[in-house]
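A student in our group prepared the protein record below, which I am reviewing. I have pasted the whole thing underneath without changing anything:
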Amino acid sequence: MDAPPPDGRSRPPLRVLPTTGAARVNPPSPIGTGRPAEAGGSDNGSDSGSTDGGELADVMRQVAHGDKQAFSGLYDALAPLVFGIVLKVVRDRAQSEEVAQEVMIDLWRQAARYRPDAGSVRTWAATIAHRRAVDRVRSAQAAADREQAQAAREHTTAFDEVSEQVETRLASEQVRRCLRGLTELQRQAVTLAYYQGLTYREVAETLRTPLPTIKTRMRDGLIRLRDCMGVTT
């Protein structure tokens, strides 16, 4: 079963240097002969150096039983390899350090799942590191896509609102221009009926004009407005 991270910490410090040109990355490993871990590591499927295949497999078994000292040695042996793989995929050093920390925590938590007959410890760690790195790149791309889509939606919304306001203003100006083309009685009748909501009878009473005259003037006025604004029926 998975054990909690050593010393109750969710993320042990990642003690790595650039993966090229570095001869020593961490203090001497407590495993094997005590030689320091090499920055480049070995990614050919074999566990070599001070911690050969058998020793790393033994260390992994100890880690699976919650041995914190064993995990410290495993960390020193694998951290440079893990960081190098992640950096090649993610390319951002700060994010690579974060992902490498997550990989090392995975190795601690999943130590009991390691099976020597399925491959070396280094190969197993490299597989987890590559998968984590790819997940981070995909997650970052998805987040960028969402932000771009949201920005596009906001731009479209703003554009639509402005367009609607412009169209409304142009329509209003056109209506006012067409109203000026009506006779005084037509303009007054249409304005009272359609802008103030009066009935034909109320318009007739307000203008002190016979109701049939108001109906005729409004009908003629609306026809002229329709023609002026280019409205087709």
